[in-house]
Amino acid sequence: MSVAALLGAISAVGADGRRGGFSRHGFDSADMQLRAWFTEEAARRGLAVETDRNGALWAWWGEPGDDAVVTGSHLDSVPGGGAYDGPLGVAAALVAVDLLRERGFTPNRPLAVTVFPEEEGGRFGLACLGSRLMTGAVDTAAALRLSDPDGVTLADALASAGLDPAHVGRDERALSRIGVFVELHVEQGRGLVDLDAPVGVAHSILAHGRWRLRFTGEGNHAGATLMADRRDPMVPAAGLVLAARRAATAIAGSRATVGRIVPVPGGTNVIPSTVDLWLDARAGDDLRTRAVVAEIEAAARELAADEGCAVTVTEESYGDAVVFDAALREELSGVLGGVPDLPTGAGHDAGILAAHVPTAMLFVRNPTGVSHAPEEFASDADCEAGARALADVLAHLAR
Ligand code: HGY
Ligand code: MN
Ligand code: MN
Ligand code: MN
């Protein structure tokens, strides 16, 4: 079966009617359909599927065991995301297993294909939720209290999916099973296009995090309240968007994005009482990421004071920069005959796991350079090249 055929099946689930793309979030109905799809595809290949304590799926070729070669990615998406971010790594992993069998290869180590839940944090706000829980990178009790926009907590969602919230958290057994982890992913920029190469190896991930800023003012009537009498939290929120742009422009290599603003209560003729705004900030290292955020936070306080509003800033998640294991990068590039080594501004479960187990990533060329949007793309030929590269790498690691 081709990667394209598997991606075609995945694309039947979770279409977003607003401007195209897909919306599939941890343990929602689209995600549960795809988890069932994965379980069927694994069973079709004779792979035994288990669900770990934190909701990751593991499909085993042979007996489950320690020191395994593990590959996989995620099936959830951002709101209105593309067809490849996540699914490509899962589909390519299944096809790589098919290719290895066609080649008559038998692994000398346990080999598993994994699906990590809620990588994008599209439902509960915390990116790489599954891998953070597995590695203990997030406080379990705090994570279980996270809630989606409908007020459903992670604990409730896990229980609805048949998981026991009491068993969530750092999973030594799962970690000891990963001898090496390789995630294949669509590239989220134009690095491979510029280098004219279908496949590359990931070099590093930017430091990045998410902050929630809450501006509180005075809810009031849009027509009856004189302009001079207002304490409108939308005004500092608007200024904050511009301040974020200015701060990230001033610090080399950094990025700041406000992709989500929620005014409460949210009426056209109502001055909001509060405005929540989420900042995504990234840079090459901890120092510069912290500097960008400090600059934006200072602006937030000044903007709030100017409007007679209050502001609180809450760090919702943070991860320092990751440089993938140099020896493993070189080894895998060598297996593939020498491929480019590229940095990325996107986060991945592989980036979380890298602090605990030997970890590497393969990237597949994306001609549009766009990601987290419907225009994200990889050609069928490049997807197959990615699966062949992954098969080569797995064969080398499990030889
Ligand atoms: O990079 C991100 O926003 C996410 O971790 N995929
Ligand atoms: Mn993503
Ligand atoms: Mn991804
Ligand atoms: Mn009225």
Outline the fold blueprint:
Elements: H1 3-10, H2 29-44, E1 48-51, E2 57-61, E3 68-74, H3 87-102, E4 111-116, H4 129-135, H5 140-145, H6 154-160, H7 172-177, E5 178-186, H8 191-195, E6 199-205, E7 207-216, E8 220-221, H9 234-250, E9 255-264, E10 270-271, E11 274-283, H10 286-306, E12 310-319, E13 322-323, H11 326-335, E14 341-344, H12 349-353, E15 359-364, H13 380-397
Helix pairs in contact: 1-3, 3-13, 9-10
One manganese (II) ion is lined by residues 78, 85, 120, 346, 372.
GO molecular function, one term: hydrolase activity, acting on carbon-nitrogen (but not peptide) bonds, in linear amidines
InterPro entries: Amidase_Cbmase (IPR010158), Bact_exopeptidase_dim_dom (IPR036264), Peptidase_M20 (IPR002933)
Binding site for Zn(2+) 2: 85, 120, 372
